[in-house]
Amino acid sequence: MESHEIDYQIFGEEMQYVEIELDPQEGVIAEAGTFMMMEDGINMETIFGDGSKNDTGLLNKIFGAGKRLLTGESMFMTVYYNTVMGKKRVSFASPYPGKIIPIDLSKNGGRFICQKDAFLCAAKGVSIGVEFSRKLGRGLFGGEGFIMQRLDGDGMAFVHAGGTTFKKELHPGEKLKVDTGCIIGFDHTVNYDIEFIGGIKNTLFGGEGVFFATLTGPGTVYVQSLPFSRLAKRVWAAAPQGGGKEKGEGSILGGLGDLIDGDNRF
Predict the structure, then answer these.
(1) Is pTM, for the whole model, over 0.70?
(2) Number of C-beta neighbours around residue 42 at 10 A
(3) Mean predicted confidence (pLDDT) in 206-217
(4) Which residue from 24, 40, 102, 182 has the highest number of Cβ atoms inside 10 Å of its Cβ?
(5) What percent of the chain has pLDDT over 90?
(6) Taking the alpha carbons of 37, 41, 46, 48 in that order, is the dihedral positive or negative?
(7) How far is CA 225 from the centre of its chain?
(8) How many CA atoms lie within 13 A of 7 on its CB side?
(9) SS3 of 136, please?
(10) Which residues contact residue 218 at a Cβ distance below 8 angstroms, ignoring those fewer than 6 apart?
């Protein structure tokens, strides 16, 4: 086994965190900003790349870092090692309400494809790369789902999702249509593409975008009910803009009230 063999436990319901138990000399890699707490005896080290076997050599490190920049992630990752005798624990927290999903790559054919911001942490030895689309349609219209992360290896990896999660086993040829932002990830055996919704009314007034993702089996698919991008848009839309007075959601006058009290700005 090339990846470190780690034990874990997930705590919480809506704001979860995962506790990783490390034997001596075992390690776990994590994205910046996910660390929660660790016991004394664990050493933290920032590295260029992910430190896997696919990340050896300066050119490979630079190329890997460049690909990570495309997903909006940092060029650097953090590794946590147990440097003492006995078991030690380190914990990582989900950045927003939702669920943490454990992925055993050794049971997923050694590869898992996930949203660009879904990766939380993984056993040392797991490679975190980019899954580029080879189809023009995905590249032009894929939106949030175009650039996906690829997790390779034979260890445990953890991804996080917003809201409630849904897991579906697709049979060969079975198809599932999903909003691109609601995809958490899927097995590498699942075929992923972009499909036009169709219909002039759907396109202009549907409010759901012009394209959605089609996932075709066989393989396992994970879907989230509240992607962070959707949550952020709702929060931004509800926030008072330009320092204006806040109006309750249930306001009867709404925008008309702004005109009456002179608070409307052009």
Answers:
(1) yes
(2) 18
(3) 72
(4) 182
(5) 38
(6) negative
(7) 13
(8) 7
(9) helix
(10) 170, 171, 172, 174, 187, 189, 190
Rg (CA), the chain: 21
Q: With bands split at pLDDT 50, 70 and 90, how would you rate the model's confidence at 130? A: confident
- How are strands ordered across the β-sheet holding 175-178? 175-178, 211-216, 191-196
- How far is the C-alpha of 134 from the C-alpha of 226, rounded, in Å? 28
Token duo for residue 53? 């076997």
Return the half-sphere exposure (C-beta side, CA atoms, 13 A cut-off) of residue 155. Answer: 24
Contacts of residue 45, Cβ cutoff 8 Å, sequence gap at least 6: 78, 79, 80, 81
The letter for the amino acid at 225 is S
CATH homologous superfamily of 7-238 equals Mitochondrial biogenesis AIM24 (3.60.160.10)
Reduced to 3 states (helix: H, G, I; strand: E, B; else coil), residue 84 is: coil
